[in-house]
Amino acid sequence: MAKIPDLARAGRRRAKLNGMGSSGAPMGATSGQGRQAGGTPRAALADLLAGNRRFVSGQPVHGHDVTAAAAAASGDQQPYAVVLGCIDSRVPLEAIFDQTFGAICVIRTGGHVLDRAVCGSIEYVVGQLGVPLVMVLGHERCGAVEATVEALRTGQRPGGSLAYLVDEIAPAVTEAGIDDPAVRPLAIRRHVRRTVRTLREDDLLAGPVAAGRVAVVGGLYDLATGEVALLDPG
Ligand SMILES: [Zn+2]
């Protein structure tokens, strides 16, 4: 993203953030904090990805500041994005986007599988908090996808509620091709795209998405480098 749009807005809420340079690099110690709900999807995405670049470069602004005092100082929450990711312990979302308290809403389920609680939570964040950006973040070597591949290959569906996760991920694995040697990485990407599509068609999200007020995007986290890459809609 070569140019970050002017972030000034007829603020619905009090501005408290210094902006970002045209390179997308943070300009101040509080960058990433206080970006307001009600902004554009593009600006929100630029902010989120700038945070990931800080994380990747080993220069997080907020990474060190996880004290109770920092939490208390966040005041009212004014998140600018909601990220839906996997439960994988190697992918802590606030950390990999270098976000401070109050900046992003985070939802995590195995394989970022949707259910009504997840959709309702996103509807709330978008509809009530005015958040303009929803990111679905998959990651390499996702255990939930691997478990689904195994279940489909062996024909042994797991018991309990784990079966729900497998059932929800299975279409992506089938689309990728269960016999394809690269079924795991392919299915991970397809599952992200399917999740994005489902959210774009959600009852309460479809309107804002069509109007351009909200964007739902897919991303992939690289466990080796820490980088988040955007996935095209596919
Ligand atoms: Zn995972």
UniProtKB/TrEMBL annotation:
Transmembrane segments: none
Enzyme class: lyase
Location of the region described as Disordered in the Swiss-Prot/TrEMBL record: 12-39
SUPFAM superfamilies per UniProt: beta-carbonic anhydrase, cab (SSF53056)
Biological role stated in the UniProt entry: Catalyzes the reversible hydration of carbon dioxide to form bicarbonate.
Family membership noted in the UniProt record: Belongs to the beta-class carbonic anhydrase family.
EC number: 4.2.1.1
Entry GO MF terms: carbonate dehydratase activity
Protein name per UniProt: Carbonic anhydrase
Keyword Cell division carried by entry: no
Keywords: Lyase
Organism whose genome encodes this protein: Micromonospora ureilytica
